[in-house]
Amino acid sequence: MNVLYKYTKIALVAQYGLALTGLKCYIFGMKSNQGTLVSYKNQPAVVVGFDGDKIEIETANGVKKVREKDFERLHAGPVKKLSEVTQANVTEVDLAEAWDFFSGETPMFLEIAELAWGEFAPSAAWKIWTIIAASPWFNATSPEQPITLRSKEEAEAIVKKASAKNEEESERAAFRARFAATLKANGGKNAAAGDVALIDSDAKYLQDVEALALGKSEKSRTLRESNRPETQEEAHRVLLATGYWPLWKNPWPAREGHSLQSSTVPVERPSDEGERLDLTAMEAYAIDNEWSADPDDAVSVDGDTLWVHIADPAASVGPDSAADKDARSRGSTLYVPEGAARMLEDRALEYYALGLAPISNALSFGITFTETGAIDDVSIKLTKIRVTRLTYAEASRRREEPQLARLFAIADRNIARRKAAGAVFIDLPEVHISANFDAEGNPTVSFVRIAAEPAADMVREMMLLAGEATARFAFKNELPFQYVSQESPEIPKDLPTGLAGEYRKRRSMKSRKVGTIPSDHAGLGIGMYSQVTSPLRRYGDLVAHQQIRLFLAGKKPMDVDDMLTRIAQGDAAARQCTFAERHSNLHWTIYYLLTHPEWSGEAVIVEIAGPICTILIPEFAQESKIPVPAAAELGSTIRVRAGNANLTTQTITFAAE
């Protein structure tokens, strides 16, 4: 220390009453005596005795015997008991002056303490140490080691950060108060928020609640700090109660890992025009529901050959391409009342959907039959076709026209063949649910009963024939392939009539299986079956097309293990997609009933089990359980009204009127 600094320091020592003897003791080492104040596991303790080579210290958890190396000395004392330390009062001081005084040095803890606080009781040393250790001006890690000084810029940055944190904590505390008041006022069961007490800036505190509600996180600090369960159901309820979400918000696709947006991974334009067989002389029909926007199959007949034409996205979506991987992660196109989130980007429709342009590219399956109507042979070609689009209703009205009549005849023959093989036909109500939004973002929900149309049955049979023929083609050519099978159902012989019987049949069906070994599909009455007719909508169908194209090109096809991996990944994602669709349909049904509390309608009793019966509501294609109404019988029609609808739990009850 230079002479000038030495005398300056002496002057300050005199001003602040610095005890040089105590300082010297700290600098050259301190022996632990009874009453010495120490830091043990970052908590204060007092030396109260000695036992051989062990030192007895009083801690908040009682007296412990420790070695001297286990603690750090704070003050020689004497401190009589620990309560003096915990109850000590220490005045806040500006440590910036001490920092300035010790500029360029590495002072000890007691030097800073005696300079800043002057004389103080030994019992206050612990709280003073915590203040110095937390100070932005000093980097203090041990009361027995020299303390380094932070730079002014570093200290000011820490002060600024601490100030911002304190401000944020103050704002969060105010939010918690408003949050609790809002939930208490609004309840948040289903109705949109009423007298909302939150302010615009509170939205940031609800983002973790939204992440939990959408399945993007398993935790929510906001719910935890409000002593609320960290569940998706509670998060959904809270978001409705606060008005952060509108009543119609559908969280189910996100919870199942699906986006409401179509894929954005680019699909390239096909480049194999010159390799395609020209079948434009035939008229092919793409027949679907009136709301269909992605036609991917068409049918035509030429002499004794049935042609089933399928969209050909595998022309540019090859195995393990970026578009293929994204489609695999989605499993299928997601269809919810809000619209469709396609597994391939929307531009794929421009390239591959059938009938959107005068000439369409296709992968076409030419099928010939035996005299009994069984499949005799199949040829698979890359083609270009001319397609006429029809709705099911239009095709049904025109079924006597020559070309359509031949298609209907093939379908009728195939239905008879499948029935003879034990196929199960189930006729339960189907409903198309749509949610259309106006310019202000308000939805209108509509339910359209899907009418039974002969053309729908005809198209179904064409697709089944294509699936059966392709399965036989793959098996014959020893091509590793995706096969779909189903075990025989156990259908009771004494089936009731009407919807009750159809319901019982559905309950009897077994789950389908997907793999690379062909087996009976008992439900369809087909000995060997694969799905190949929706490569724009189902990933498994796209993989099947990729395998067929490799075979047709004379290239090495994917092996069994590769196929199994792709099938398993795509099928798992497709199941999640199915769950998302089911939950979404129920979500919008409940929303409709909440916004139409006056609703009542017809229901059919399809099962009775003791005092409880299962009803089917055709208007919504929705089933529920209610107490058996007086004098009700299986299959009878009753009128019901809805109640206790809850969006967050996806529950709704119906009662007989």
Describe it:
It is built from 19 helices and 23 strands. It folds into four domains: 3-150, no CATH class; 155-245, Winged helix-like DNA-binding domain superfamily/Winged helix DNA-binding domain (Arc Repressor Mutant, subunit A); 273-585, no CATH class; 596-656, Nucleic acid-binding proteins (OB fold (Dihydrolipoamide Acetyltransferase, E2P), Beta Barrel). It is elongated, with a radius of gyration of 39 Å. The chain has 657 residues and is α+β, with helices and mostly antiparallel strands. The strands form seven sheets. Strands 4-3-2-1-5 form a five-stranded antiparallel beta sheet. It has a five-stranded mixed beta sheet with strand order 8-14-13-10-9. 36% of the residues lie in helices and 23% in strands.
Sum up the structure in keywords.
657 residues, alpha+beta, Arc Repressor Mutant, subunit A, 4 domains, five-stranded antiparallel beta sheet, five-stranded mixed beta sheet, 19 helices, 36% helix, elongated, disordered N terminus
Strand content: 15-25%
Sheet with the most strands: spatial strand order: 4-3-2-1-5
Query: How would you sum up the major sheet?
Result: 5 strands, antiparallel
Number of helices: 19
The total of beta strands comes to 23
Assembly state here?
Answer: single chain
Helical content class: 25-40%
Could you tell me the radius of gyration in angstroms?
A: 39 Å
Mean pLDDT: 91
- The overall number of domains is 4
**Uncertain stretches:** 1-29, 188-194
C-alpha termini separation: 98 Å
Write a brief structural summary.
The chain is of the alpha+beta class. Helix content is 36%, strand content 23%.
